[in-house]
Amino acid sequence: MVVITLTLVSLAVGMLYAVFIWNYDHWRKRGVPGPKPKLFCGNYPHMFTMKRHAIYDLNDIYRQYKNKYDAVGIFGSRAPQLLVVNPELARRVFVSNFKNFHDNEISKNIDEKSDFIFANNPFTLTGEKWKNRRADVTPGLTMGRIKTVYPVTNKVCHQLSEWVEKQIRLGSPEGIDAKHMSLCFTSEMVTDCVLGLSAESFSDKPTPIMSKIKDLFNQPWTIVFFFVLTSTFPSLSHLIKVRFIPLQVERFFVDLMGSAVKARRAQLAGEKQFERSDFLDYILQLGQKRNLDNRQLLAYSMTFLLDGFETTATVLAHMLLNLGRNARAQELLRQEILSHLENGIINFEKLNDLPYLDACLQETIRLFPPGFMSNKLCTESIEIPNKDGPNFVVEKGTTVVVPHYCFMVDEDFFPDPQSFQPERFMEPDAAKTFREKGVFMGFGDGPRVWIGMRFATAQIKAAIVELISKFIVKINPKTRQDNEFDPVQFLITLRGGIWLDLEKL
Ligand code: HEM
């Protein structure tokens, strides 16, 4: 009996082992070099323990192979992935060979039945559907429309500095949680600019909007489990779809959207003069043109709402971190801001034309990029050269990983890469030049380039102008001193959080 049991167990273990390793020769068969994968976790050794951010695992591989090849074959658990280690090839993937790498890998895991809202975001849409949706959404984010909501931005900036003054009076020894403060700012801004409603984020009794946004990003374990499962058994991704937007969050925003639409229609019917050409106004016009119901209207507006909260708050918080750590840069920025301030604000055109402010923002995105890597899908097979290795064909369906962060902290492109040096972006067209070399794509590039860039940068710059013109930013000792990323957060975040001591100027 014991012998039979042992034999069966060994057989089962042996079979499982065979299943796990059988496609580890995928890249060798295709003549693509690369590091040896480990059992279960492939080339992401911290996949299960999550003790280290995945981008550092990719950075180790990048540094090992970048001088020898353009791309190497790796495995996410058992799933083969092509890792791009040459920025010129990265740019081909995003720009010149866009038609071969048209879609984002995530599109495989989402459908309308499992996640109606995320499935309707341009980021997950594919083919013609993506093209049409992008064309629909883009005119909603013109400079003119962002300028229209600039008074709202300034109102929220004022609320932000009043809130900071209150925190200074309360005097917590831990200082101010920069991410929380930034999320209060962006949730108030975005809700007002997009829906014309207040989230009351800075009050003692905020509406549930803030907590629903936090719910949205506080679910990494289920999502990580899903990704581990589908990369271990790739064919499962055809059967199981993931829900990124929890049902209760979806329901909450559907209702909120319904109320916002109702209120706006009542305003339009009541006051003939009511005019606010904001995002809601744009979406309502689009809704009429396309005959959309409330749920579909919500799917469109969620692009403006959800994509903006967390990404923008993350960049704002890390920009304050960098300025707090660099007193000289902070002072230079303050001088630039104060020389253009009129009655406490900077006019909209000037806000977008302050070189040092812009350089500080770009340098923050380089060091702490929300878009730290992109997983693209090969949509049309293509042959590519591979420096010291033979040419090879990237087959349709292959996942192509572009690790932007690795290029952005490579000393060959950015000397002393971990230090904050806004001067890197002070040369005319510096950001464009870096982008064209493929080494700075924190905003993406090509036809899928980040759609909300002007909206997000205007908000971040306005908040920085408000804070730097009124407060001195210092770092509370609770904040770590290096740039290590939190391994379990969706977006790049300094491990342990950012804690600020703000002093009135
Ligand atoms: C500082 C804040 C933000 C950062 C750093 C950021 C970054 C990015 C990046 C790196 C991409 C991928 C681009 C690519 O695949 O080439 C992207 C896509 C996208 N972003 Fe953002 N984003 C930010 C804010 C926003 C805001 C405020 C909105 C909407 C109002 C937005 C809407 C989108 C959409 C819809 C896409 C998908 C575009 C497509 O696939 O066609 N983003 N973003």
Describe the protein.
By secondary structure, the protein is of the alpha+beta class. It has one domain (2-504): Orthogonal Bundle (Cytochrome p450), CATH 1.10.630. It has helices spanning 2-21, 26-29, 54-65, 87-96, 116-119, 127-137, 143-148, 150-170, 178-195, 209-217, 220-232, 236-239, 247-270, 279-290, 294-325, 327-338, 348-351, 355-367, 404-408, 430-436, 453-470; strands spanning 71-76, 79-84, 103-104, 176-177, 374-377, 382-386, 389-394, 399-402, 471-475, 499-504. A hairpin with a 2-residue loop joins strand 1 and strand 2 (79-84). The protein has 21 helices and 10 strands. 51% of the residues lie in helices and 9% in strands. Protoporphyrin IX containing FE binds at residues 94, 121-123, 134, 303-304, 307-308, 311-312, 315, 365, 370-371, 374, 442-445, 448-452, 455-456. Protoporphyrin IX containing FE (HEM) binds next to helix 15 and helix 21.
Précis, in short:
The protein is of the alpha+beta class. The protein is built from 21 helices and ten strands. 41% of the residues are buried.
Please state the second-level CATH architecture.
Orthogonal Bundle
Any ligands, ions or cofactors bound here, and which? protoporphyrin IX containing FE
Taking all residues together, what is the mean pLDDT? 89
Distance between the termini: 81 Å
Number of strands: 10
Biggest sheet, open or closed, and with what strands and sense? 5 strands, mixed
Q: Provide the low-confidence segments as ranges.
A: none
Total number of distinct structural domains: 1
Count of runs of 4 or more consecutive helical residues: 21
